[in-house]
Amino acid sequence: MRRRLYVDQTHVRGHVTGIERVSLGLFSPERLAPHEVVPVRSRGLPGMILTQQLGLPLRGLLDRDALFLFAGFPPGPACALMGDRLLLYVHDLFLLTRRDELNARARAYMAPSFALAMRTVRRFFTNSLTTAAELRRHCRPEALVAPLRPSVPDVFGLGGIAGAAPFRPGEPLRMLAIGTIEPRKDYPAAIALTEALNRAGFPAELHVVGRVGWGEHPYLAAPPPFLTLHGYLGDEALRALAETSHLLLSTSKAEGLGLPLLEIQHGGLPVVAPEAEVFTEVLGPSGLFVRPGDPAGAARLVAEAAVSGRLGRAAALSRPNVARWNGLAEADTALFLAFLDRGPAVYGDRDAR
């Protein structure tokens, strides 16, 4: 059965974020063929609000055979009238669980709609098993919650590089961090880990790639000597930096997926990440896991991994790991296409209650 699927893209303007990149790839016309994908765009913030709150619900009333998918902003209250034709793709639960780390716009506009969606939406899809498990604790008990993990293409063109720079004792350990500078990424923890390495006599550098987002960041005004803030980098510049780096470091407080961790693995770099369920799901045996709240302990683990060769062994698992993830993503997409054809029963009794 060929379905028409309206996809809310009213929030996509200018620079494309990681979340938007995931959504655009997952729900592209090419990926979901032969079904008809109808992207819904808007001009400017007022147009986005008007389309989300009124335009899309009106389309739902006029086109009663179509499905409507929201993969960025949560649906407006009137979208509840669509019933089971309303699909919500969830990247994380931060609008509910980490409200203190949201900017004012997200708290005022997005969080109330997301909380309402937990009570009204009955068809959810998620970017990871970890997000799915957390979502089930908040949504209606009978709702469908199914993983729809995104494929991670080599967006930076890292497949052609030899891999991580080999570490040589005595030279600085060059650590790369990628992501918008905002509170949830917890760059102060990455800075503390790097400082602990240097204090222990283990030279280390931290290179941060990403735009400055919201929040207060005192280290931007007076960065320590081991910290280099690169801002946004184009693909060529990022490739050059990755080739000279020994590892990717993430100290994020929470993620729904952690897309840059997988993207960098196309270049064969090892990844150091927090001990948390989502990171173990995404990285598996390829990850090196630390406790960012204990910078001295984390620094000891990183230094030991570099000296012992454990870092190199993790690097050897990076490319196979992103291939493993992409295999899971392709299987999820096949199930989603079957869902569009035949409905929620394709997910089995557990998720099609």
What does this structure look like?
This protein is α/β, with parallel strands linked by helices and 353 residues long. The chain has 2 domains: 145 residues, Rossmann fold (3-Layer(aba) Sandwich), CATH 3.40.50; 166 residues, 3-Layer(aba) Sandwich (Rossmann fold), CATH 3.40.50. Helices cover 42% and strands 16% of the residues. A 6-stranded parallel beta sheet has the order 2-1-3-4-5-6, with helices on one face. Strands 9-8-7-10-11-12 form a 6-stranded parallel beta sheet, with helices on both faces. Helix 8 links the parallel strand 8 and strand 9. The radius of gyration is 21 Å and the shape is globular. The mean pLDDT is 93. Pfam families: Glyco_trans_1_4.
Task: Provide a compact summary of the structure.
The protein has 353 residues and is of the alpha/beta class.
List the helices and strands and how they pair.
Layout (H helix, E strand, L loop, with lengths): L3 E5 L9 H9 L2 H4 L3 E5 L3 H19 L4 E4 L15 E5 L3 H4 L6 H17 L2 E4 L2 H8 L7 E4 L25 E6 L8 H13 L4 E6 L8 H4 L5 E5 L3 H9 L3 E3 L9 H7 L5 E4 L2 H7 L3 E4 L4 H14 L1 H33 L11
Parallel strand pairs: 1-2, 1-3, 3-4, 4-5, 5-6, 7-8, 7-10, 8-9, 10-11, 11-12
Helix pairs in contact: 7-12
